[in-house]
Amino acid sequence: MKIGELARLTGTETVTIRFYEKRGLMPAPARTGNNYRTYLDEHRERLLFIRHCRGMGIKLDEISELLKYRDQPQASCEMVNVLIDSHIVQVHKQIEELQNLESQLLQLRHRCNQSINPRGQAARCGILQTLENHLPDT
Amino acid sequence: MKIGELARLTGTETVTIRFYEKRGLMPAPARTGNNYRTYLDEHRERLLFIRHCRGMGIKLDEISELLKYRDQPQASCEMVNVLIDSHIVQVHKQIEELQNLESQLLQLRHRCNQSINPRGQAARCGILQTLENHLPDT
DNA sequence: TATAGAGCTTATAGTTAGTATAAGGTCAAG
DNA sequence: CTTGACCTTATACTAACTATAAGCTCTATA
User: Looking at the partner chain, which of A69, A102, A135 has a beta carbon nearest the beta carbon of B91?
Assistant: First the structure.
């Protein structure tokens, strides 16, 4: 199949497929006489694997790692667990940081002080003043 | 003060200060005879404003917007509210997406199947198999 | 047969918010 | 007089694409 069909089958942009090839995630496929890339089923499976990983937020470098294990069935899969575990920790940290940020933003938003700034002048904007002097709560 | 002192006072790298200048967030300051940048208190205040915004995850383009209102005290501050509100919505969406991702990752992790793959061979790795075929739960 | 449109090819630049590196000028202290 | 800290500029790199340009190939239709 040509790159367009592979793209359709996997929900991937053709440019992204070529990008993965340049990054070494996808092998350079055979070419037809007119220099078009031709893909086989194994390419589609590999690409789906990559896209599933991306859907989990796994980085391309880490996906390269995973592909190595996928390519060597006899290898130990211990590192796969390690990789996923550290990814989980990372995602959890991100969530906590964003929750923190959200509560700070909500506090900042409450500084709007519409009551004492009825004309809505920037000079008396409680939000701008807060950003000027310090972060809320600190 | 020179750039190094400004950097120390605001907890910003000197390169970042120059970067903000190039991006138009910080004005080009006066230069001494030896071509060193010289900053005043108003520069320090502006930079702190920027850093506080960055601490809230606000993008540089949005900070440029906020600085415009900061520079025009008579202007309406309505857009400030709008900007912060949309940022809050955005952060909330990110949190929800990451929570979704986390639960998917946890499910993936449970596919490890140590029991039926005691040697830990990649060929029987439940995680790799799951990534191969589909995302967990879908 | 000419041409329009879809699809393929490559290369390059832009996105975010810096960070890293190189190569060089300035200043104070030892 | 040289060492070290500090300043200057410019360029390239990060992640994972996306956008753009310029050009080739194939098929269908006028």
Answer: A102
C-beta contacts of A11-14 below 8 A and 24+ residues apart: A11/A51, A12/A47, A12/A51
> Residues A101-115, buried b or exposed e (16+ Cβ, 10 A)?
bbebbeebbeebeee
What is the pLDDT at residue B131?
Answer: 87
Q: Which long-range contacts (CB under 8 A, 24 or more apart) does A73-77 make?
A: A73/B121, A73/B122, A73/B123, A74/B121, A74/B122, A74/B123, A75/B121, A75/B122, A76/B119, A76/B120, A76/B121, A76/B122, A77/B117, A77/B120, A77/B121, A77/B122, A77/B124, A77/B125, A77/B127, A77/B128
Task: Report yes or no: B12 and B39 within 8 Å, Cβ to Cβ.
Answer: no
Confirm if B8 and B44 have CB atoms less than 8 A apart.
Answer: no
- Spatial contact of B107 and B134, defined as CB atoms under 8 Å apart: no
Inter-chain CB proximity B135 and A56 less than 8 Å: yes
As a whole number of angstroms, the distance between CA B92 and CA B99 comes to: 11
Neighbouring C-alpha atoms within 13 Å toward the C-beta of A128: 28
pTM for this predicted structure:
0.87
Strands (DSSP E) found in chain B: 30-31, 37-38
A73-82: pLDDT as tens digits: 778 788 888 8
Task: Give the model's pLDDT for residue B120.
Answer: 66
d(CA A59, CA A66): 10
Which nucleotide has its C1' atom closest to residue B3's CA? D7
Which nucleotide C1' is nearest A4 CA? Answer: C7
For A83, name the nearest residue in chain B, comparing CA atoms only: B109
